[in-house]
Amino acid sequence: xxxxxxxxxxxxxxxxATAGVSAATPRDTLIRAAFMTxxxxxxxxxxxxxxxxxxxxxxxxxxxxxxxLQQALAIGYRxxxxxxxxxxxxxxxxxxxxxxxxxxxxxxQIAIAGWHLTAVGDLxxxxxxxxxxxxxxxxxxxxxxxxxxxxxxAFFPGYAALIRIKLNSSDVANALRLAQRSAGDQATxxxxxxxxxxxxxxxxxxxxxxxxxxSRLATQLLPFGSxx
Length: 228
Known about the structure:
The protein has 228 residues and is mostly helical. It has helices at 3-19, 26-35, 40-60, 65-82, 85-101, 106-123, 125-132, 136-149, 155-167, 172-184, 190-207, 211-221.
């Protein structure tokens, strides 16, 4: 094992000890950072931990698909938290490469969707496109593809419900359909359960036709929406 792998592994051990995630996988750590953290500095520490762990894994197993996906997500999350254009563009390139390698990978498609639509939500249509090349239409197309490919996992329609109503408070019918589908789908993984619970919280507001309130709640429930 080379010096770089030793160093990356040491970073993982140190961060895990301080953040209490010694037994967590990079996926677990990123879920915690995105959905269960209220402090930006803590979120960044968790994201950096996941990035270091995936980097160490890829140094030994460069074709590890899970490590590639989680590293790309960590780069994207770091870019979002630090407002780094370089990280944002690097994450997008990694997501596109993953989707090209496996066009039927629902997780790669939803990562692309989230990249486009988060940029649009943060920057607006014009700046998102001019600065990053992000597009609402491209994001929605990848989002629909992810829902189609995702089978009966609650994560995919649940995330789609959240991001759609966040971006368009008038999109009540689509968001309600997706949130209700998520509520009835399988929640066999941690991300399924987290997003299923979040999407289920939208249902009463959407049933009442209150898209504005549902949009505000979705913003809080999406990744890093609860940061102070």
